[in-house]
Each structure stands twice: as structure tokens, then as C-alpha cells.
Design a protein that fits this description.
The complex is a heterodimer of chains A (386) and B (434).
Chain A: H1 3-15, H2 20-29, E1 33-36, H3 43-48, E2 52-55, H4 79-88, E3 97-101, H5 105-117, E4 122-126, H6 134-154, H7 162-188, H8 195-205, H9 210-224, E5 235-240, H10 249-257, E6 260-264, H11 284-294, H12 311-319, E7 324-330, H13 334-349, E8 354-359, H14 367-383
Parallel strand pairs in A: 1-2, 1-3, 3-4, 5-6, 5-7, 7-8
Chain B: H1 13-30, E1 39-42, H2 49-54, E2 58-60, H3 62-71, H4 75-84, H5 93-103, E3 119-124, H6 129-141, E4 145-149, H7 160-182, H8 188-210, H9 225-228, H10 230-233, H11 240-259, E5 264-265, E6 268-269, E7 272-273, E8 275-280, H12 288-296, E9 300-305, H13 325-335, H14 342-355, E10 360-366, H15 370-373, H16 376-387, E11 390-396, H17 406-424, E12 432-433
Parallel strand pairs in B: 1-2, 1-3, 3-4, 8-9, 8-10, 10-11
Antiparallel strand pairs in B: 5-6, 7-12
Helix pairs in contact in B: 1-11, 3-5, 4-5, 7-13, 8-11, 12-17, 14-16
The chains are: A alpha/beta (386), B alpha/beta (434).
The complex binds iron/sulfur cluster (2 copies).
One iron/sulfur cluster (SF4) binds at residues 77, 79-80, 103-104, 106-107, 244-245, 330, 333-336 of chain A.
């Protein structure tokens, strides 16, 4: 499989709103599949129950919204309406359940809508703790995960034993490492690992079986180094704010074409939510809880009780020798847009240039964004700041 | 056509009491620093007022400042101030109003400057934006924050684990932090006394809400209701002043029932109750009177509302209690209206419509507020299906005057009242005229 074939396959999965991969997987294995919304759920628990976790990131750029708009006012972001569209048009019938992690009030309320709309499906709002003490938030989260495991067993999954869960953790650790290597290579040689490719690889990972995906990423990493790709005079940037509703693929490509090497980003963040390995242990729930409490990336949906706001972003910029930040968030996204001024202040204090814009997953016009980021890139190239 | 009589409005005793309480509180706040009182900023939903008083601290509720700014027509300028400072047009305007007000000197509704917080008590109940709001204030004031994470009632119930999680945070995180900042040690018996007082005031408040079952209703449970919740949703729950206020209010309302009077509006007593409605969602504050007038001019009385339950949901029997202080605080936080899942919210509205014999319901969808608004279009359909009553849908904002279109709302309401008439189809005549 060439790099092109790998990426074509990922793009096919990305565009396939009928979820044929999931259908085939279910047919092949005779097992069930459970969907989840952004940002983060402990996929290990779903996997350990013998089920396929499937990330639902909205309907993307091309889904025609026929019914979804009737469910949401114009001032609510786009992802819930396209997700409802997928649901009511039957495209998500392949899923036996759906998880809604605590990220914002829109996803939270969407969980209630799902309960009312799809009464025969398993629906769980996964309440992630905002208290980061092991014995308080940690215990609460362990209970949430155990409840999820019991529910999944009840739904026809396998009982989640410690052995099963440790094995799943191991497989997801392998996957996390492969993705970390992908990001490392992109940061080191951004001309080699195009962001649009890295993005499609990540998107494939939220649909595919985890072992298969790890192999795919590894194969890509192996093959891409053999590609001849030219270095461009691009600036190095970090993209921040796109952790939930996703920017259109064409927009991501447009950012690259406008003269930016993206060396860090927060889209498909669930796949990289935990930094490093989750420990294998006698009580793997404890390990997952600790990973969430102490090794999760900073992001707008998680309360920051230890560090200064923006320290994480500044650190990314410094560590990866980025020259600027692009704040790129969905319109009407309270978490990202309320977070932005705090992050911007942190950047200003450190004299790191940034530029900002808002998008919607079905935004069709990219020329304005491209022009904006192009000017941003030019000004950094010329004067070292925007 | 006005459905109210034209005699001038006399201020009732309860209104005067409330006014005095608010004035005294803001006076105390303005002298907080010289009296060495520590100030806690905290949110209305899930507020821990009794705890704050038991530790001799003083509470400030930023949402109340925001709504007061809107009623004094200042919020528009404050919001622009925040937007100039880099805040998005798309986000909750309560936050921007508060930040703008702070940047313009933090002058409270009585004209006295508000003291800076010594502690931000982040009661994270029913609204995600609260977290961002206090993270922002933390940057502005550079003061400590203590988080109380209240889990969501996604399955329509409070499990023992949810309650324990909140209690544990209270015991091990919130109370120690408040003790440290205040320099006082918590006396559980004293806390219990405040909580018992809250429970008594809550009993009287519930009696006031239930008076709307009468025909005509002696109260407007939304436009009038927002005044009734003033003391209990803000600084006074747990204090003797609040008890006296609610006893007085209850007496006044009972007297209105005895005399068969309708609610008091800014233009006098409503003389004819033509429509009985239930309202979901917060009101618009920038044009509050104009908004209310659109209802009472048509003879529409709100007999039940959900907004008046955001700072405490007492309809199912919950009362604060000194017998189990921390558990009681936890249950209170867990029970606030927007901490209920959507299906339960529909259930609450359905029950109000039935119990209060409403002709229909109106949803005022607030641009700012994802917590309330996301899903309301589905609630509208579900509720119409469940009750067969007419549902109306209007849109506005809490404190951003740019999003209050009077003509538009009036049009929609007029069509809505026609729909109610049509649904009634002679089913029943107006139940009472005065
Ligand atoms: S895009 Fe933002 S507001 Fe919308 S669902 Fe996602 S996190 Fe919530
Ligand atoms: S989103 Fe709604 S509940 Fe939350 S702070 Fe804003 S107005 Fe209040």
C-alpha cells in the first residue's frame, strides 16, 4: 500500500456517512458498535466489552441538512444539527448505543434529545469529573466507567474483566504511541507529513478497529519517509480551538496552502487526549482514572486547577518552535470562544503572534480564511510577528 | 387593549422589604473591606448561601449584577466593552456584561462600587459556561477559585454516588478553602440553623407558586415571579430577613386569593385573565417591562415557569434541612432546574401545564444560553404532543439589547394567542373575569 493508497482509504472512511466499515465489522465479528461524540471517552472500556467504539464528529461539509435545522436555533453551533440529521435519517442505525461526554451544554442537551428520539438505543451521558483529586473525582469517574461497562455487558457485550481491560489499554497505548510518532514526525518534518494526511489518518482511527489503525499509521510512517516532498518556505503554527466540531477538510488543506506548516493542533483531540501510556494494573479503572486526572491535555472543556491558563499552549509553541498560533473555532462554540481571550492573553504575554477566525463544519468559502492566514504567514516571515 | 385596570400601583409591603434588603446588602458589600469581611462571588444555581453566611462571608452573584445592569440599560455598553477586549459576539452575554461592568469600575446596581472577590466559588451546576466565566474572572482578579462540580441528572435521578461526590467535595475541598479564606471555622450547628431557615422560606415560596392554581391566578409566576425569587436566589436564603419576606409575600398573595384579585403588573392589577400560560426559559431583561406588557395587554397570565426554578427546584418536595446539612446542600445543587435532563424538563413543564390548568406554553429561547436553549425546539414538539396544548416559540436575549426585536416578538405572540383561541375552539370560555 502506498502513501496515496493509505490516505485514499482514510479519505474513503472519512467521507462514508453510511459507516460501511462499521457495518462490515459488525457482520464479520457479530459484535456491537457504540458511537461517541467529541471530545474524549475511555474507548478502552468499550473495546474491552468487545464492541467497536465509533467517533461521530458531525456530518462534515457535504451532508445536506434537511431535518436537523428544525431541531436547533440559528445561534447554536452546527455539529448537533448534523448529528441529529445523521440520526433521524437512519445513518446511525448501525450504532447500538451512543455516548455523550461532558464537554458543553449543547452536547449535554443533545444526549437528552437522543434519549427522547431513539428510545430503543442505549444512550449515556458520560459525566467527566472536574475535580482532580484521586479519591474524589477519581472515585466518581471510576464509578462512571464501571457503570458504562455494566451497561455495555447488559447491551450484549462481554463482561469487562481486569484482563480484558488491560489488554484493551495495551492496544490503545500502542495506538497512542503510533499517533504520537506521527505528530512527532510532522513537527520535525512538516513538509513530509502533510497535515491533511495526518488529519485523515486520525479520522480513520475513530472508526476503525484499533489494532488495524495502529498498523495503518505505522505503515504510513514507514512509507512516507520514502516520499520525495519539497520543503516550502512556510511558517510553523499551532492550531487551537477545533476540538469538537471539525473544520472542513478543504479548510485544513487551505491553511497548509496559505503558507503554514501546522506542527500541533487539537482536532480529533479524543485520540490524543491522554499523554503517554495508561498503566496496566490490577485495577485498570484506576489507571484510566489517573490518566484522565493527571495526564490529559489541557483543553477548554476541562477545568484548569493547577496551571495557568494558556501555559499548555505556550509550552507547545516553545517546544515545537512554532512561530504563531491560529485560533480556529466553530462559530457559537462557547467553550472554545470563551477560552480564546485567555489563551490569547497568554500568547501576548509571551509575544507569540496569533490570528483568529471562526468556521462551521459546512463552511463553503475558504478564500477569506486563506487570505487571512496567508497574510499572517507573510507578516511572520517578513517581520517575525503579525 | 389593556387588560389591566388603571389604578396606580401601590408598592406592597413585600416589595418594600425586598428593596430594603437589597440596599442593605449592597451597602454591606461596599463596606466589606473596611469591615474586614471576605467576599465570595458565586453563581445563583447551586449557590451555597448558607455556607457563606455560616462562615461570615458576603456573597456576590454576577448574574444578578448582569441582569440589574440590563434593567438599568447599561448592559449594551458593557457587552461592547467586552467585545472590544476580544470576546466573541457568539458567546453568553451574561459573561460579557459582567466583564464589561468590571472594566468600567465594577459599580453595583445601587451606585456603590462592588468589592473585589476574595474567593470565586465556582458552583458548577447546570451550566458549562459558569466554568469559563470564573476562569475569566480569575484572570481579571487574580484571586483563588474553588470548584464544586455538580454532576448532571442525565438519567433523571440523583444516585448515591452523585450525592457522595458533591458532599466529598464540600467536605474536603470547598469548606476547607472557605475556612482558609475567611479565617473562620465552620460550625455545623450554625450552618444547620441557616438551612432550617431556608427550608421555612422555601415552604412559603412554594405556597406562593401554588397559589397560581387559583382562577384567577393572584400572581404572575414569571414576570412577577422573577421578583419573588429575588431574595431566595440571591444573598438572603438562610437569613431571617428572607423568612420574613416570604411570610409577608405569602400573606399578601393569600389575601389576593381571598379577594379574587389577579396579579399586579406595572400598570396595575390585571382585570381579566384570558390566557393561562406556562413559560420555559429566562426572560429578556433589557426590555423587561415592554416584554411583560405584551403579555398582560392580552390578558395573559403566567401560572408556571421554569426560569424561577434555576436557583432552586422545590416543586417536588425538596427543602434545605439542618438535619443533614451537607447532603442537603448537595441535593439542592443537584436539583436545580437546568441540571435536569431534557426529558425531565419536558415532564416538569407538562406537569405545570396540567396542574395549573394552562391553555398553553411559551418558550422564550435565549440566544446566550446554550444550557437552556439547546434542545428547546424539540421540547416544544414533545410538549405539544404530550399535552395537546398550544406551544409558542419566541427568541430574545437576556442582556444584549441587540437581540430584542419587539415587533417580531409581538407578532409571534399575537399569532400564538390566536392559535390558543383556535385550539380552545370554544372548548371553554375565559374562566373568570373580575
Ligand atoms: S462545537 Fe462547541 S458548543 Fe458546539 S457542541 Fe462542540 S463544544 Fe459544544
Ligand atoms: S449560558 Fe445560560 S445559564 Fe450559563 S451563564 Fe449564560 S445565561 Fe447563565
Amino acid at each position: 500500500m502506498s502513501v496515496k493508497q493509505i490516505i485514499d482509504e482514510c479519505e474513503r472512511l472519512f467521507n462514508d456517512l453510511d459507516f460501511s466499515y462499521v457495518k462490515e465489522w459488525k457482520k464479520r465479528t457479530g459484535k456491537k458498535a457504540v458511537g461517541f461524540m467529541p471530545v474524549y471517552v475511555p474507548r478502552e472500556v468499550i473495546h474491552a466489552a468487545g464492541m467497536l467504539p465509533v467517533g461521530i464528529m458531525g456530518g462534515g461539509a457535504d451532508l445536506e441538512i434537511i431535518k436537523g435545522d428544525a431541531y436547533f436555533q440559528s445561534y447554536i453551533c452546527h455539529i448537533p444539527r448534523s448529528t441529529i440529521e445523521l440520526g433521524v435519517s437512519g445513518k446511525l442505525n448501525v450504532l447500538d448505543g451512543m455516548l455523550f461526554p461532558a464537554i458543553c451544554d449543547v452536547i449535554r442537551n443533545l444526549s437528552g434529545m437522543w434519549q427522547m428520539l431513539f428510545k430503543d438505543k442505549y444512550v449515556k451521558y458520560l459525566d467527566l469529573p472536574q475535580n482532580f483529586d484521586k479519591t474524589i473525582g477519581g472515585e466518581f469517574y471510576k464509578f462512571e466507567m464501571r457503570t458504562l461497562a455494566e451497561d455495555l455487558a447488559h447491551l450484549g457485550g462481554e463482561p469487562v474483566t481486569a484482563d480484558h481491560l488491560n489488554r484493551s489499554i495495551q492496544l490503545y497505548n500502542d495506538n497512542r504511541r503510533a499517533i504520537a510518532d506521527l505528530y512527532k514526525l510532522r513537527a520535525e518534518q512538516p513538509h513530509l507529513v502533510m497535515t491533511s494526511e495526518a488529519y485523515l489518518l486520525l479520522r480513520a482511527g475513530i472508526v476503525m478497529d484499533v489494532e488495524e489503525h495502529t498498523q495503518l499509521v505505522r505503515r504510513y510512517l514507514h512509507d512516507v519517509t520514502k516520499e520525495k516532498r519539497h520543503k516550502m518556505d512556510n511558517i510553523r503554527v499551532v492550531v487551537s480551538g477545533a476540538f469538537c466540531e471539525q473544520p472542513p477538510l478543504a479548510l485544513i488543506k487551505g491553511l497548509e496552502q496559505s503558507g503554514c506548516y501546522i506542527v500541533e493542533d487539537d482536532w480529533v483531540l479524543g485520540a490524543r487526549y491522554i499523554e503517554g501510556d495508561v498503566q496496566l494494573a490490577a485495577d485498570p479503572y484506576e489507571s484510566l482514572a489517573q490518566a484522565y486526572l493527571f495526564h490529559a491535555v489541557a483543553n477548554a472543556s476541562k477545568y484548569e486547577d493547577q496551571h495557568e491558563k494558556g501555559a499548555f499552549l505556550v509550552d507547545q509553541v516553545r517546544r515545537l518552535k512554532a512561530e504563531g498560533v491560529i485560533f480556529c473555532a466553530p462559530s457559537f462554540c462557547d467553550p472554545a470562544l470563551l477560552e480564546r481571550p485567555m489563551l490569547a492573553d497568554a500568547l501576548t504575554r509571551e509575544k507569540i503572534p496569533y490570528t483568529s477566525f471562526n468556521y462551521s463544519e459546512n463552511t463553503g468559502q475558504f478564500s477569506v480564511f486563506k487570505e487571512q492566514t496567508g497574510t499572517f504567514a507573510d507578516s511572520i516571515k517578513l517581520w517575525g510577528h503579525s | 387593549m389593556s387588560e389591566v385596570n388603571d389604578k396606580s400601583v401601590e408598592k406592597e409591603e413585600s416589595m418594600l422589604l425586598q428593596k430594603q434588603m437589597i440596599a442593605d446588602h449592597f451597602k454591606a458589600l461596599s463596606k466589606a473591606k473596611e469591615n474586614n469581611k471576605k467576599v465570595v462571588y458565586t453563581f445563583v444555581p447551586g449557590n451555597l448561601n448558607e455556607l457563606i453566611w455560616a462562615l461570615d462571608m458576603l456573597p456576590v452573584h454576577p448574574e444578578i449584577n448582569a441582569l440589574q445592569s440590563a434593567m438599568r440599560k447599561k448592559s449594551g455598553g458593557y457587552i461592547l466593552e467586552a467585545e472590544k477586549a476580544g470576546h466573541s459576539e457568539d458567546v453568553c452575554t451574561y459573561v460579557k456584561c459582567d466583564i464589561g461592568m468590571m472594566r468600567r469600575g465594577n459599580v453595583g446596581p445601587t451606585g456603590d462600587p462592588l468589592p473585589e472577590p476574595d474567593l470565586l466559588l465556582l458552583s458548577y451546576t447546570g451550566c458549562f459556561t459558569f466554568m469559563k466565566w470564573f476562569e475569566l474572572l480569575k484572570e481579571e482578579y487574580n484571586c483563588p477559585v474553588v470548584m464544586l462540580h455538580v454532576p448532571y441528572q442525565a438519567e433523571g435521578k440523583v444516585t448515591p454516588q452523585m450525592r457522595d461526590y458533591v458532599v466529598k467535595q464540600l467536605k474536603e475541598v470547598v469548606i476547607p478553602k472557605m475556612e482558609e479564606i475567611s479565617g473562620n471555622k465552620l460550625d455545623l450547628d450554625r450552618l444547620g440553623t441557616f438551612l432550617e431557615s431556608s427550608g421555612r422560606a422555601e415552604n412559603d415560596l412554594v405556597a406562593v407558586w401554588e397559589s397560581a392554581k387559583n382562577k384567577p391566578s393572584p400572581i404572575d409566576a414569571y414576570f412577577g415571579g422573577v421578583y419573588y425569587i429575588g431574595p431566595i436566589f440571591s444573598a438572603f436564603r438562610g437569613l431571617p430577613e428572607a423568612e420574613i419576606y416570604y411570610q409577608t409575600l405569602r400573606r399578601e398573595v393569600e389575601e389576593r386569593v381571598r379577594l379574587g384579585l389577579g396579579p399586579v403588573t406595572p400598570d396595575g392589577v390585571m382585570k381579566q385573565e384570558k390566557y393561562r400560560l406556562v413559560v420555559e426559559g429566562p426572560p429578556n431583561w433589557t426590555s423587561f417591562r415592554e416584554f411583560w406588557k405584551m403579555f398582560y395587554d392580552e390578558g395573559a397570565v403566567v401560572v408556571g415557569s421554569t426560569y424561577t426554578k434555576v436557583g432552586g427546584y422545590y416543586s417536588e418536595g425538596f427543602r434545605h434541612s439542618g438535619k443533614y446539612p451537607l447532603e442537603s446542600l448537595a441535593e439542592y445543587c443537584l436539583g436545580c432546574y437546568t441540571n435536569h435532563n431534557l426529558s425531565d424538563r419536558v415532564g416538569i413543564l407538562e406537569k405545570y401545564i396540567k396542574d395549573y390548568d394552562a391553555d398553553g406554553f411559551v418558550i422564550n429561547s435565549i440566544k446566550s444560553c446554550n444550557s437552556f436553549s439547546a434542545g428547546q425546539l424539540m421540547m416544544l414538539r414533545e410538549l405539544e404532543n404530550r399535552t395537546g396544548r398550544a406551544g409558542g416559540f419566541i427568541e430574545s436575549d437576556l442582556v444584549d439589547p441587540r437581540y430584542f426585536s419587539a415587533a417580531n416578538i409581538k407578532n409571534r405572540l399575537e399569532s400564538y394567542f390566536q392559535m390558543v383561541e383556535a385550539k380552545r375552539g370554544g372548548r371553554r370560555a375565559p374562566e373568570s373575569t373580575l
